[in-house]
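# nightly structure sweep
# worker-07 picked up a monomer target from the shared queue
# config: single-sequence mode, recycle default, output format = structure tokens
# input follows
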Amino acid sequence: MNSYLKSRQFIFFPINSSRSVSSRFINEIQNKMNRTGRIKIGVIGVGHLGNHHVKHLSDIPEANLIGVFDTDREKSNSISKKYNTKTFDDLNTLIQSCEALSVVTPTQHHAEIAEQCLRSEKHVFIEKPITSTLSEADNLLGLAEKSGTIIQVGHIERLNPALLALKSHVLKPKYIEVQRLAPYTTRGTEVPVVLDLMIHDIDIVLALAKSPVKTIHASGLSIMTDSVDMANARIRFENGTIANITSSRIAKDKVRKLKAFQDEMYVTIDFLLGLTEVYRIVNRKNPNALMTVPLSEEGGSKQIIYEKPQVQSADPLRMELSNFIDSIMGNATPIVSGVDGREALKVAIQIHEMILEDLH
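# output follows
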């Protein structure tokens, strides 16, 4: 098993929020669950991504995959046979047979299905975005708080190994630039690019900035579909951090890059290549640096050092789901909580609505 999964050592970028996890919440979880037992879990929706959820949950030792449900009976039968689990013909029967559910359906069904799970006091992992609207998200958060259950949201890039490679560095960026470009495909085009692609980077930026949003400026274009296909947003945070995010689904090649600038440090991440590079200004040479260049200044000199942190191979989705299971067992907290998912959705909706007002 991968060393990340063995140690459960995750990097956390918490988002400031007025909501907090109460001791009652933790106690209810610990009292309900047998912390040494396997968690009975089901998967709702076994399309492209749901298939991977089933694959990992069938293999995670702490998870007991009870079965799957999908409105496409042929697909659910095929997946259940492939992973030696059960197909449920009735959604409620699957929900009542489990302690937790993974919701991997189209976004427009997240709220209704997750609400059904939460009203039955089941923990839920919801693929991003958490819901279509803020009111739906708030309803789910209220139900989870009332029932003492966990909501975790699948913002998978938080566990990208290239980002995890920075865990030894203190990140306090003043400027963040992110690009997420993809060639056009018909899959997912019913969802605006902001809610489909950009929301990944909104979540990362919110986590890195660790500050409330002050202002947003956004623009975009609709070229290939009736929805927004290209978007750019400039976000200023209360602490002065500025983020510039660009997303497109009509590019020639895939691009997923992040650059972050802060006092005496510059970081670049290529999420696709799994490449992380760090440039730092220091007072003395670092023997572990790959490259050192002198930087002269009045009254002395400093060194610009180049480092290439080791990026360990890991499957972010498996790590997410393992973290979800561990959180239910009381051994961890969700990497991306329901509150985090709600905050990312809030900013994404603001950006999308701003673009629609100015669309031409």
